[in-house]
């Protein structure tokens, strides 16, 4: 299966780098999601099968709903193993940067990765930085996992995509494409998924491992959020959710518990924008989701130190929750007016 999206020159550079066994560190972004972990651990399996030594290093411990991914437990997390994380990066021949494209997205790993002699970027977010010697950046790709698959095939590593790698890559494809329903999902995405299925991936077990993992606390927090903390603005076709630290404490919040909450706002008929604000110990975390031509990544980059994709982006604010939400509301009419449907 050929893919038109992998640039031949970059592929050639990477092929040369991997011509003999290498020590490879694979790094992904802060608060790693399914695509970040799936692509990193999936590529780790492929590179190991191809004779390299590969390790995954993450800036912080991921939410536990992906702990079942084969090889996930081997990943070093900087918050728990800072020394091993940094020395793995510093002693590697090359660092592969997956599912992020700016070095400020990797927390405490930033300096070590910046100092690495050889960096390779594989990512699908907007506006990539130019810190890497080899750059695979495809903002049309539905996931980094899909890119890893295409690059692996381009490198002739087809036979090294075993069941474990396939399971990791398929999982990231599912999570980043909203189960193959976002606009980024193409016929090629489905062909890659089909090929991974032919390698034995158990799609029912994966969906169930991803979806059926709620705690009672999380489900109650969701119910509370939707009934008590969601404001619907029909005129602006926008929903806004704000959770403060007492709300989170009341439902014994654990990292990952609010994952996906923002999408409920967008599921209300007629909405084109959903906003989610959450009070964390040091910062207000913001998530935006939109439909159609409403580039929330640019909005967050301009106003809330954020970025991401045109229809799904994140950002932050050092203001109080109330002030951050107020500022958002005051910027909203102009943003919407600038992108009429
Ligand atoms: P989420 O809202 O689920 O945290 O993130 C949505 C998308 O935006 C993801 O692709 C994520 O990587 C990206 N993103 C989230 N927060 C930030 C941020 O603070 N800065 C940038 N550049 N991207 C972010
Ligand atoms: Mn991704």
N- and C-termini, Cα separation: 37 Å
- Structural class designation: alpha/beta
CATH level 1 class label of the largest domain = Alpha Beta
Low-confidence blocks of residues: none
Can you tell me about this structure?
- The chain has helices spanning 8-17, 34-49, 82-90, 110-115, 144-154, 163-176, 187-198, 203-211, 216-228, 245-250, 261-266, 296-303, 321-338, and strands at residues 23-28, 53-58, 76-77, 94-98, 119-123, 134-137, 230-233, 238-243, 273-279, 284-290, 307-308, 312-317.
- With 341 residues, the chain is of the alpha/beta class.
- It folds into two domains: 8-211, Alpha-Beta Complex (inorganic pyrophosphatase (n-terminal core)), CATH 3.90.1640.10; 219-338, Diaminopimelate Epimerase, Chain A, domain 1 (Roll).
- The mean pLDDT is 96.
- Manganese (II) ion is lined by residues 35, 99, 124, 143-144, 176.
- Residues 35, 99, 124, 143-144, 176 line the site of manganese (II) ion (MN).
